[in-house]
Hints:
Strand content: 15-25%
Structural class: alpha/beta
CATH class of the largest domain: Alpha Beta
Shape: elongated
Radius of gyration: 20 Å
Strand order of the largest sheet: 1-12-6-5-4-2-3
CATH architecture of the largest domain: 3-Layer(aba) Sandwich
Number of domains: 2
Largest sheet: 7 strands, parallel
Order of helices and strands: HEHEHEHEHEEHEHEHEHEHEHEEH
Number of helices: 12
Distance between the termini: 34 Å
Amino acid sequence: MKKSMFAMAFAAALAFTASAPALADTGTTSGVQASPEFYAKADLSVLKGKKLGITIQSLRNAYWAGVMAALEEVLRANGCTDFTIVDCEDSSAKQIAQIENFISSGCDFIMIHPSDAAAVEDAAAEARKKGIKVMCWDDPMANTDGNWILNNTYLGIAIGELAGNFINEHFNESNKAKVAVLGFPQTKILLEREEGIRQGMEKVAKGKYEIVASQSALRPNEAQTAIETIIQRVPDLKVVTGIGAGPMIGADEALNIATNGKIPADMGVFTTDVTKQQLQHLADPGYPAKGIIGFEGSDVDTATACASMYALILSGKLTDKNVFRGVAPITLDNVEKIKSGMK
């Protein structure tokens, strides 16, 4: 069977490993690009007997809940049983208090997924003064021993390029795709993703699409309402791009209802994050989900890579403070493999 242009573009993307991009707005221009070989350098046995404190933005987010559940299993499997995972409910004040508690309880290592990176710099500095190793997930913080970074503009570009390849297959300049962009400009990194999505589509499918709506929608119910409203005005909406799991799940539900589950070949939804529900939609022809830009792979893959970062930092083997996470597409071609490692 002849492969579609979209499938061939997906295969090419899988073979591509991005070089470490610059984060111009923070001045961070150096670092190492993570790869399976990079993580393989970690000896996870160094985690045995260590006391870890982990504070993240929110466990209400399905992506984070899945990854943290997998991380607990990975840590225990490698002899690390003294760890605490807490949720700051997106409050910097609460997160600072959590870091202070980790310091006073004698942690060997603290990981911060900051609500506001600048707000927790002093607390991170205090931890390091006490000899505690500190890692940041997502931001290039100054007072850390290692930063596990996503360039969110680059991530958005990858989403936009995946959508653009799909647009190229089904549309042209005389028959332009009607596109909706679901973003969340209230949060800096999500605004960067949205801007990247626009750049990626323009780079790949210039002149073959029209953005008919751009709306803030982070959670599934918000995204579903947004798309239901948009299709009342634009009934031939065919492509939705978004900044996370919520936009995909909500858009999928709205378009499933609008088409009575009979999704046309030229309808697609493209986002990022990787949750079990997203993957289920991707595998179900009754939903328009066509592509997700993922990171290390499944929940287990991401948790293992995260634990490897802990081990590299604790053992002093992290040679570059800034480690850029890779991104890769998930489509029908590899969805079952990814599903097998989800929590």
